[in-house]
Design a protein that fits this description.
Strand order of the largest sheet: 2-1-24-25
Strand content: 15-25%
CATH topology of the largest domain: Rossmann fold
CATH superfamily of the largest domain: HUPs
Oligomer: single chain
Helix content: 25-40%
RNA sequence: GCGGGCGUGGCGAAACUCGAAAACGCGAUGCCCUUAAAAGGCAUUGUCCGCAAGGACUUGCAGGUUCAAAUCCUGCCGCCCGCACCA
């Protein structure tokens, strides 16, 4: 089966060694050259690479090598996102220390990546579980603490019972843990937060200033940040002058339609509002029911809204009306003020609740003609609204807010759905949070000179819950950095998304010891020009990294506002209609693939089968096709080596066949370049190269008679060399080998990218399509830019066209220069 | 419910600043090479009618705009993704 295959194993090993020995892809700052920072999301060292990795790294390497050839100074680093739960779980299951498990996996995966022949600058490899790495985020943590950007508080958090740790909001997907899919529960717990909400407005604003990002991702981030503008004001409690309930609304214009108000069950004022024992019992029961519900139950679709009426009443400040007050489960303590004014006339949720509880509805917006529904959330003219009557929704919003402000009752208010980033993890395998708790001084940050706070190695991992570090006496028991007295270390570790929030900066100067990164190096390389990774991080890593970069900027460490200039979100690798997974039994192992077909084939197919942003449907026959193509290239070059070596450089063919062939060569250059530069259409770029190879075969056999041998050899040489240069970034080993066999002493990847010769591209003749009433009836070969009236005359006289005009009058003739003629008839 | 995306041969796909639908690859069929197979080469391959020449039809469905629509517009149908009681 493999009898005539080119020796890919030998070739790939040879060039991987050469590139490494010659340090060809090592990057150094060079202000004289334009830089290109090409970065793929670094992997978690789970054990072995999978096809998803092959795909991203093939894309990244293609761009990196292409940019090298375009003369850029390319930074293309690789490293390991090495902290994380799987290491700890492996330790619990198999008794291997997380560090050993992690470093063994890294060693294996590094070898796998090397076998793929990716052009990484391995000198810059970094591993986030290295104290020399996480030291710097501990330092930044302390600075964030000083600025109030990191803080500790008790709150209700998302708890994953399987991972035994807290999850940030971004890490909960439809009520389930993003990593293990367990149902998330709620827990009241002390924990550390990063104040990402302080950057909500800036993160949102920059969503409009990153044209290199996919719209899809930006939309997801905008939705996640969830800005809404409105007003906040107080509802006085009847007969209790000391009590006011603050509410947030985006529709202050509808305040006259307020017929009741609602508090979240957890609202702190509830206790103060309750007076008699019976009411207290009912409320406690309701609160307990709500608390028992899981996140999944509470957000289930079509859930009826439940609530309890309180004895207390509040006053609508707009019209003085006394209205009933409820607690209800559809109001969340975590959003706005945890209390609302309810306007059933213009809010569907309030409408539903009002129907159930027999509450009155006052419409405040004139309904459109024929409106039959309940709540009307659309815009319109105000009615039943006192001083707002007759205004539009927008005008009334403004006027209502002005009215509140004038009377000191409320203010305009912007709310965000984004919550602060909970970074405490009650697990072992992460970066320690560098603070201690002193009996005398309370919480005290570790001194800078004591950093890093190193994660201890000797730890018992039971998986039973509770921070494993709390069991390590030598770690926990320490001295207060302030008073020198007895103190206990913080035993939570940081969310591993903190490490991945700045690794791209560390790559700029990975061995720098005086700080997080060397300022000059970061200024030269940053921002990342092209970032490549999966869509699953649209609001996780990508939002955190944007936030953290802004924090570092505000700490004066860097000037960059945004870490990633352009983002390419690649699709998943699918086989037999499903994502590859062990349970589905549809996994393709990269090791097998490389052993059987070679890295070049694996990469070429990954790039050819689909455009990068789409899911890639893995097909074993397709892989064979990619392999067949590379073999075809190999055989052609080897078989014609003698001819190719004698071919002169630069050809100006004189025969029509030669001119046409040379045009094909240069059209291919243009197509491939446009496809890479434009929208990353690597699949069509490869198609174009395949067409060139097909043309090469055809020309080689057809040109034996007719084309002079000098012209023929020169053209073949130009075609083959161009083809190898264009194919290089897609299949680097085989092209590099053939380049050398052609007698070139220097690397293919040190050659300039070919430029299409305009002269070769220009045509003398074009084919013009002849249509009658929009249907193709014939073709006409004619010189370029022929006069319209002549084209028209020839079209009308054409043998294929004339029969279709019989018995019909020509109404008009549309001539599109160099493309088509459409004869429109009237019957 | 809100937001985004998609729907083209047997399959992956291409063309989407309106201008030859299906490039390239896979698969399939036939032939050549071979003792034979593998590998390779050449050819055919959207559907239907036809011996052929040729013709008709065809981009989820139904309309519309246009000389001309896969491409623009309207309304449906189906699929995927994100958010979702966010006041």
């Amino acid at each position: 089966m493999s009898s005539d295959r080119y020796p890919f194993a030998e070739i790939e090993a040879k060039w991987q060694a050469r590139w490494e020995e010659s340090r060809q892809f090592r990057a150094t700052e060079d202000p004289g050259r334009p830089k290109f920072y090409c970065l793929e999301m670094f992997p978690y060292p789970s054990g072995r690479i999978h096809m998803g990795h092959v795909r991203v790294y093939a894309i990244g390497d293609l761009l990196a090598r292409y940019k090298w050839m375009r003369g850029f100074n390319v930074l293309h680093p690789m490293g390991w996102d090495a902290f994380g739960l799987p290491a700890e779980n492996a330790a619990i299951e198999h008794g291997v220390h997380p560090a050993i498990w992690t470093y063994e996996n890294i060693a294996y995966m590094r070898a796998q990546l090397r076998k793929m022949g990716i052009s990484y600058d391995w000198d810059r490899e970094l591993t986030t579980c290295d104290p020399a790495y996480y030291k710097w985020e501990q330092l930044v943590f302390i600075k964030m603490l000083e600025r109030g950007l990191a803080y500790r508080r008790r709150s209700t958090v998302n708890w994953c019972p399987s991972c035994q740790t807290v999850l940030a909001n971004e890490q909960v997907e439809a009520g389930r843990c993003w990593r293990c899919d367990s149902e998330v529960t709620r827990r009241d717990i002390d924990g550390w937060f990063f104040k990402i909400t302080e950057y909500a407005e800036e993160l949102l604003a920059w969503c409009d200033r990153l044209p290199g990002w996919p719209e899809r991702v930006m939309t997801m981030q905008r939705n996640w940040i969830g800005k809404s503008e409105g007003a906040e004001f107080d509802l006085p409690v009847v007969g209790r002058p000391e009590l006011k309930i603050r509410v947030f609304t985006t529709r202050p214009d509808t305040a006259f339609g307020m017929t009741y108000a609602v508090l979240a069950p957890e609202h702190p004022l509830v206790d103060a509002l309750v007076t008699d024992r019976k009411e207290r019992a009912a409320i406690q029961q309701f609160r307990a029911e709500v608390a028992r519900q899981s996140e999944v139950e509470r957000t289930a679709e079509d859930r009826p809204k439940r609530g309890v009426r309180l004895g207390a009443k509040v006053v609508n400040p707009f019209n003085g009306a006394e209205i009933p007050l409820f607690i209800a489960d559809y109001i969340l303590m975590t959003y706005g003020t945890g209390a609302i004014m309810a306007v059933p006339g213009e809010d569907e949720r309030d409408w539903e609740f009002a129907q159930q509880h027999g509450l009155p509805v006052i419409p405040t917006v004139k309904r459109p003609a024929g409106w039959t529904g309940g709540a009307y959330a659309g815009e319109g003219v105000k009615i039943n609204s006192g001083f707002l009557d007759g205004l539009t929704t927008a005008e009334a919003k403004r006027k209502a807010i002005d009215w509140l402000v004038e009377r000191g009752l409320g203010t305009a208010k912007v709310n965000y759905r984004l919550r602060d980033w909970g970074i405490s993890r009650q697990r072992y395998w992460g970066a320690p949070i560098p603070v201690v708790y002193c009996e005398k001084d309370g919480m005290v940050p570790e001194k800078e000179e004591h950093l890093p706070v190193v994660l201890p190695q000797d730890v018992q991992l039971s998986g039973k819950g509770g921070s494993p570090l709390a069991e390590v006496a030598s770690f926990v028991n320490t001295m207060c950095p302030k008073c020198g007295g007895k103190a206990r270390r913080e035993t939570d570790t940081m969310d591993t998304f903190v490490e991945s929030s700045w690794y791209f900066l560390r790559y700029c100067s990975p061995h720098y010891e005086q700080g997080m990164f060397e300022r000059a190096a970061a200024e030269y390389w940053m921002p990342v020009d092209q970032y490549i990774g999966g869509i699953e991080h649209a609001v996780l890593h990508l939002l955190y990294a944007r936030f953290y970069t802004k924090v570092l900027r505000d700490l004066g460490l860097t000037k960059v506002d945004e870490p990633f200039r352009a983002l390419l979100s690649q699709g998943m690798v699918i086989k037999d209609g499903a994502k590859m997974s062990k349970s589905k039994g549809n996994v393709v192992d990269p090791d097998d693939l490389i052993r059987t077909f070679g890295a070049d084939t694996a990469r070429l197919f990954s790039l050819f089968a689909a455009p990068p942003e789409k899911d890639l449907d893995w097909n074993d026959h397709g892989v064979e096709g990619a392999s067949r193509f590379l073999n075809r290239v190999w055989r052609f070059v080897i078989a014609n080596l003698d001819t190719l070596k004698v071919g002169g450089v630069g050809s100006t063919p004189t025969t029509p066949a030669g001119v046409a062939f040379r045009r094909t060569i240069h059209e291919t250059i243009k197509r491939v370049t446009d496809d890479i530069e434009g929208d990353f259409h690597f699949n069509t770029a490869i198609s174009a190269i395949m067409e060139l190879v097909n043309a090469l075969h055809a020309f080689e056999s057809a040109s034996l008679d007719g084309v002079g041998s000098g012209e023929r050899a020169a053209l073949l040489r130009e075609a083959v060399e161009t083809m190898l240069l264009l194919l290089g970034p897609f299949a680097p080993h085989v092209t590099e080998e053939l380049w050398q066999q052609l007698g070139h002493p220097t690397s293919l990847f040190k050659q300039p990218w070919p430029v299409a010769d305009q002269a070769a591209l220009t045509r003398k003749e074009v084919t013009v399509v002849l249509q009658v009433d929009g249907k193709v009836r014939g073709r006409l070969t004619i010189e370029v830019d022929a006069a319209e009236d002549r084209v028209q005359r020839l079209a009308l006289a054409d043998d294929k066209v004339r029969p279709w005009l019989r018995g019909r009058a020509v109404e008009r003739v549309v001539v599109v220069p160099n493309r088509l003629v459409n004869v429109v008839t009237r019957s």
